[in-house]
Amino acid sequence: xxxxxxxxxxxxxxxxxxxxxxxxxxxxxxxxxxxxxxxxxxxxxxxxxxxxxxxxxxxxxxxxxxxxxxxxxxxxxxxxxxxxxxxxxxxxxxxxxxxxxxxxxxxxxxxxxxxxxxxxxxxxxxxxxxxxxxxxxxxxxxxxxxxxxxxxxxxxxxxxxxxxxxxxxxxxxxxxxxxxxxxxxxxxxxxxxxxxxxxxxxxxxxxxxxxxxxxxxxxxxxxxxxxxxxxxxxxxxxxxxxxxxxxxxxxxxx
Length: 254
Known about the structure:
single chain, globular, 2 domains, mainly alpha, Lysozyme
């Protein structure tokens, strides 16, 4: 049976090691604050364990070690690229209007090709090939009428808000997009909000399950079909249009 003093000593040694590792990995004050609070909570929980209940010393240390590993994984899970994009959007926020066309299109499309930017950003963020990323960009191009309409013009469900954004997210997914954008102080009409939420959704929800098949795709036809059928799931696929647009984002605009 482990005694309280032995348990506390073992915990403190592990806590010191964890602190050193966390200090090397954490760079932001906010993350450091969360980390300290989390460690203090774990420490309090450990000290409140009943010493008479009986706990094998090795099991106790293993339990604590696993908890700290989970904490470190969570702390390091933030996307640097996404944070940089959010920061950029906030800096340029005053230059964007609230109109879907004037805000996203006239400002951003006038400076760059949104679809081509998507291919590059998606490839970097998800480790996809240009062919696979083109399948995503082509689908988003189709969904938004050439990235001109962030709000669905004629909602399929009468009286509903319809789709919103690059993927024309509807229902709970639209609400999740709006909430995510609000939490990050982003306008849902901006590139940063749409790209940022897309990456968030595929990395943190079941909607990202299509990536397993997409990563095996070798042609733009396969990529476009997988994204349409597994991620977007439209009522009327209109695959020819999606594929035509996807082909324009291949190297050389095939």
